From TrEMBL:
Residues 43-142, 194-292, 318-412 form the Fibronectin type-III domain. Residues 163-200 have a biased composition (Low complexity). This is S-layer protein. Gene3D superfamilies: Immunoglobulins. Transmembrane segments: none annotated.
Amino acid sequence: MKPRLSRNIAIAICAVIFCLGIVTYGYAQNASWPGLKIGEDKTPYVAVAVNGEISGDKIILHWDQVDHPKFSGYKVVISKSNPNPKYPDDGYLYYITERTMTSAVINNSEAYKNGDFGEKLVPGEKYYFSITVLYSDKTVPGDSLQLTYPIGTAVSSPEPAEEAIATPAETTQPTKETPATETKPAVKPVVSSSSSSKAPQVTVSTDNNRLIVKWNPIYSESFQGYKVIISKNNSRPAYPSSGYLTYITNQSTSQWVIDNSTAYHGGDFGSYLTPGQAYYVSVTALYSDGRVAGNAVHVTYPADGYDSLAEKEGVRQSLDPIAISATASGSNLILSWTASEAANFEGYKVVISKSNPNPKYPNDGYLEWITDRNRTSVTINADTYYQGDIQGNLVSGEYYYFSISIIYDGWIIVPGPAQYVMIP
């Protein structure tokens, strides 16, 4: 019996070693551990801090773009009494599903939903504002900001209003249309409340079909960052009114390359520059006590420069849309489609509309964001849909248009054909 016992012990020891090897490998592959989800996406979830200022009779909020692969949207949240408001506990004003839309105007034009102060803000009252980021599997609230909702055109803000920003004279980059001798009269700047605040001195040059923006590095204890600004129509662009291309927090950084590889946020020309088109380029310096806009340079984006929109359109046309089928199952409607095999696949958006025969994301919102390419069906019943032309629950016995918008790398969106189907 002893040989057999020894053999059994040896087998048991080997089994333990094998299991420990699997556990060790799984842990190495997924440091967050739960469920040994080997290969799981470990990209950290991001909370965004909101900035804001009062402009006339409205409040303008701004925040940084979230590029997480599981991003679903932003909820603009307000509370009268909670200093740390978040969705869903404190309701929301806007639901924004386009990741590049990083600003919101608060002007009482829309009713607030499920808050602690009613549907409208009261002029002269203080409120807490924040942004909750929605991911496909969780929500992450950000830091809050307290502002007073303005009375008429009164200006009250923890940051200087746009009129209080020092804006040096515009400089014009020499072009064929604009001789080098042409200059505009200097405008006397409004001095910032802190003598440490300085305006960036901006120059722009063209190199290898790109624009090179340079400025003097600013060393100040109150320094917070630089915003690179572009505008098509505003000859004196400044942050936040003209949006921004990038946010730089390193004081020593003194140049940035504009090559259409990064989407613009909140501008007057869309997300990307058009080759051959002239723009005003500037840099706004952010300090703890305010913001100071640098001079603007009028320059043409090279005609042979990288055209992101054209490339995206070319990629979009090369990708096939996804058709869906619908089947009633009791009180449910089952939507199904064929899995995408594209290497640059990012996800499916399930889109519904009451009146649009060709619904697509983001115009018509979405019901669900699916990032697993092999999940090719979804069950529909009396779901709540607060986007597009549907405000509330889907109604049994009524017809709707259903489609799938497929999202590819670079946020290229290809909407599919719709099915007009009745909810059982």
